[in-house]
Specification:
0% strand
Length: 341
């Protein structure tokens, strides 16, 4: 069990570093569009900094395989989401992002909820599932993927409207989180097939299951969708939302799909159910839009006068040349012939 906890902490570090590096790289790249996936991929692979972030995420994925072989799904997701603290610290130090007070309180509540989920784990009493009926996996995964893609397209349409309220990325985070939730189920299923045997036997076992094909789709679609959203929105908000949705979906859906049971004791059962409900309620209560920029003058508030205004806010008439007082020079020609200035 403790090998799994250590691997989950390493995965948290790698994921946080990878997301921050990718966000830093995206700031210097041309605007991405999910409607042009090939162009998105070509643009991304030309950035060495983005490739470094992608390698960190890939290493985190490898650590995740170890986690799912040694920890139950609910406990693994609780540890994964606790890595949001490190992500917030890195995004603040490296990217200069500052979450609002309401967002900080919401993320703090999410961390409390996930600590409750981790506290519900009892070593020796947990069953780590390995196999799941393929029909059940597909019955859960296909509608979820369709819902994630449809939600992302809806957010994109709203973002393209004129005079829209600026979005803060909640919709993007939920949509990508649904895709990555399916990816987590596929990782869990693939990890269960990495049993003893030769490479050929393992390859046949994987290719004969739906897991590698789900991983290919979620990797491709998730890459285009997540990078486009990450370029437009703050990493300190969109990544926690995405991670929370992924964790909740994987824990709630993956537990029965892979035959893992809830705790029998009342206290661990309460902690797990209440923690999941708290995280979901916090996510639903988060604002969907960033607050609009304050107007220069509203409710008697004033702004400092600009260089073209006097101390009372009245606009000065520009002089034609430096050193000339206003209303003198070529900028104010005579209003009639022969009229003196």
């Amino acid at each position: 069990m403790w090998w799994g906890v250590g691997a989950a902490l390493i995965a948290n570090l790698l994921y946080s570093v990878g997301f921050v590096l990718e966000k830093r790289a995206l700031g210097g790249l041309p605007a991405l569009s999910a409607g042009r996936p090939v162009r998105v991929v070509v643009t991304l692979v030309t950035s060495p900094l983005w490739l470094a972030g992608a390698l960190a995420l890939a290493a985190g994925f490898a650590a995740q395989l170890v986690v799912y072989r040694t920890l139950p799904i609910a406990a693994a997701q609780g540890i994964f989401v606790s890595g949001l603290v490190l992500l917030l610290l890195l995004s603040s130090a490296v990217l200069g992002e500052r979450p609002t007070g309401r967002e900080r309180h919401a993320l703090g509540a999410v961390l409390v909820a996930l600590l409750m989920v981790v506290a519900s784990v009892r070593e020796g009493d947990e069953v780590v599932g390995g196999e799941a009926p393929w029909g059940l996996v597909l019955a859960v995964s296909v509608p979820t993927l369709a819902a994630g893609v449809a939600l992302y397209a809806q957010v994109e349409r709203r973002a393209g409207r004129r005079h829209r309220v600026p979005t803060n990325g909640i919709g993007y985070g939920v949509a990508v989180g649904l895709l990555y939730g399916v990816s987590s189920l596929a990782v869990k299923g693939a990890a269960g097939r990495l049993t003893g045997g030769g490479a050929g036997e393992v390859a046949r076992a994987l290719l004969g299951s739906p897991y590698p094909y789900l991983l290919l789709f979620t990797a491709g679609a998730g890459l285009v969708m997540s990078q486009t959203a990450l370029q437009r929105c703050r990493a300190s908000l969109i990544v926690p939302v995405c991670t929370t949705v992924t964790a909740l979906f994987t824990a709630v859906v993956g537990t029965p799909v892979f035959g893992e049971r809830l705790p029998d004791d009342p206290l661990p059962l309460f902690l797990r159910v209440a923690g999941t409900a708290l995280a979901l309620s916090v996510l639903l209560a988060m604002p969907r839009h960033d607050p609009p920029a304050p107007a220069a003058r509203r409710r008697g508030r004033t702004r400092p006068p600009s260089k073209s205004e006097d101390p009372h806010g009245h606009r000065r008439d520009p002089a034609a040349h430096p050193g000339l007082p206003p209303r003198q020079g070529a900028a104010h020609p005579a209003r009639g012939p022969g009229r003196a200035l």
